[in-house]
Amino acid sequence: MDDAEASSMAGIFLGTLSITTVYSKILEYAGPRLMSTLGLDINLLVTLAVLCFAIFAGATYLQDVVRTLLYHYYSCTVKVVSQDPLFSALMTFLEEEGAFNMSKAEAQQTQIEQQDTEVKEKGREHSKKGGLKQGNVRPGGRDWALSSLFPHSTRHIEANLKKWDDSFDIFDDCHSESESSESEGEGDEIVRNRKKIRYTPAPSCEDFFYYKPTGTTITIIRDEIPNTQSGWWNPRPKQQVQLTVYGKDPTPLKMLFEDVIERQNNKDHGRTAVYKARQGTEGGGTGAEWMRCFSKPVRSLDTVILDDKQKEEISEDLKEFLLPATSKWYSNRGLPYRRGYLLYGPPGTGKTSLSVALAGKFGLSVYALSLSVAWMNDDTLALLFSSLPKNCIVLLEDIDACGVTREKGEAGKGNATAPSKPLDDKYKSSTPNVKVSFSGLLNAIDGVASKEGRALIMTTNHRERLDEALIRPGRVDLQTKFAYADRKIIHGLFRAIYEVNETDKRILKFPTDFPNDDEIADLANAFAEKVQENVFSPAEVQGFLLKHKKNPRGAAAEVAAWAEQALLEKKGKERKEKEKEEKEQQEKEKEERKEKRKRAKEEREKREKSEERLKEGKGSSDDTDTEDERGAGEEGR
What we know:
This protein is an alpha/beta fold and 637 residues long. The chain has 17 helices and 13 strands. It has helices at residues 3-37, 42-73, 85-96, 104-122, 144-147, 173-182, 251-268, 308-322, 324-332, 351-361, 378-386, 438-446, 487-498, 502-507, 517-530, 538-546, 552-636; strands at 75-81, 157-160, 198-201, 206-211, 216-225, 238-246, 271-279, 288-297, 339-344, 366-368, 393-396, 455-460, 478-481. Helix 11 (378-386) links the parallel strand 10 and strand 11 (393-396).
């Protein structure tokens, strides 16, 4: 043992000795005084304090051991991650059930309000003073004795006015819809939407939820999982919620999730859900997933003003495709169970409206996809198509402007037909940084790994710009042309805008002299007579009508002047576009002539250099022949 270790041990011994000495002096000083004044033995107090501390530590340790054993051998657990749509549905359900309220009183008040609402719907009277049954609000039921062994809800809760999270706001649009319904009112007064505070359990903290149908207490723990990748598309960590119920029967958790889905399905009834693609949180640069953005009320197909024959054709085709027997029919014949539609025509003619209306009619979700986003490539596109659910509509809008064109060397890929001619410069895309290749798009649509059971709808304003390989039969099975509004469509638009029921007239305060249905029909005929056919899009006509929403007579009287002015503006715009195209064509021809002269000059210089090299070669060969002749003459002499 060296001197340093000896000095260190000596210091520890002296420190311990000093503490012991201090403790002895305290006992020596305080002991007699406590005994004389209070009649307490300080040695007994110290012994009791140490014993209490030991009991508390032992009980805490025993509780942790028992809890660990119960968790591993006598509990059922379900984990849900934020990337799954079930996560937000579950969190919304728990919030509506009052699981995250700050106090029992608030939870009781919430449930009383819910009961009052139910009573009012049934038309019966109910008083809040009647109270609520204790079994409905206490954090426990038949397993109350078991749950009381452990700490109660920590009440560490996060509060916010926004959605659950930017990364999992899949079902939160239902909250916005419910809040909007609360702000509805009659009259001219504008009522702002009421903000609602939303609570969620703080990460890594326990909360308890009493599930009444099974009389079970469910433990809730929400955790944050760090992301493996970062970026503007995914700034927040992933979330995970864990539900635990003590016992070997998972039925309470299964019933809870069945209630969650049933409630969400009820909310989605009569609504069309719209999904969009986003950069995923896993898979590195190729990760991608579908995110629910919002839902909208189902739009009736009758509100889409289009030729009835066209609507019936595409509607019946999609209806037959969705029949259960159709899938078996495709399978028996070895055909891929997919369907493709192309809607083409001028802008504002109702292509997107028809797509959404078809989705609403058949209860399908719409998956809107953009190929021009910065992170989209062949791998992410294939991943998105492969992760589509069965029976849905994939919407590719303005497919001609997405920037995906056939490159050199891709001729014939995915199709046996001849390659289409190159597009003119005026048809080329303004998004040159698109990473999706033409062959990648074709493989995603109908490749080996492409998902079956979906309907693909592509829209375009310029069908002539599309490659024939993209719209060949098998990829596009039905093409529907949209045209400018004819007289029948104009007449239908007028009646659709002004045929209003009495309730809407009262709420929106229509004038008392608003025309009846017979006069509306006459005004519609007069209106259609004054608008030129096949000149204006339905969107343009509808925009004019909405400016006279409560004045159909004024709309019919002013439409002639509007049509004349709009036609002049349209012709002026067409003239400017034509002049611009002519100017661009002249510049293009000028550049071509310049390039042609440049190539001619280069060819001339190249030819001159070649001639010079030939002359130099001929001169050198002549000199060589002369030298050879001289050498032969000298040998002869």
